[in-house]
Amino acid sequence: MAFPASLAHHLAEHAEAGRTGLVFVGARGGILRRNNFRRIWLRALTTTGLGDVHFHDLRHTGNTLAATGGATTRELMHRMGHSSVRAALISQHLVNGRDHEIADYVDGQIRKVKRPPRGPSGT
Questions:
Q1: Which of 3, 14, 25, 71 is geometrically suited to a Cys-Cys bond with 8, CB 3.0 to 4.6 A?
Q2: Whole-number pLDDT of residue 11
Q3: Cα(88)–Cα(82) distance, integer angstroms
């Protein structure tokens, strides 16, 4: 998977290695603690020019992308740690144009099995 240069730099310089490594770590490479997280997060927003982005927005974005990538509600529940369908659905957002993609997919599936009309002789 290709990452934008800034994300690739962050992962290489500031995150833990591997698929299960933490993306955000403290100054000494440890887990971020509640008592210093806000200060670090606000500094990161200022440095990157992202403005008014809440950390929880990352969770929503990641799960919206997972949903548009085909994740089922059960899979999203697992990713988010939710035990109810209602909680999982609240975290999902409709992405512009997705309804057209869904309709096109359904149409394609119907066309695959739709039989051609019979000719005048019944064949």
A1: 3
A2: 83
A3: 6
- The structure tokens 């500031």 sit at 14
For residue 42, give the amino acid letter: L
Residue 34 has pLDDT above 80, yes or no: yes
CB atoms within 10 A of CB 82: 17
pTM (2 d.p.): 0.54
Q: Which residues contact 63 (CB under 8 A, 6 or more apart)?
A: 71, 76, 79, 80, 91, 92
Please give the Cα distance from 41 to 6 (Å, whole number). 16
98 or 13, which is more confident: 13
- CA 108 centroid distance within chain: 25
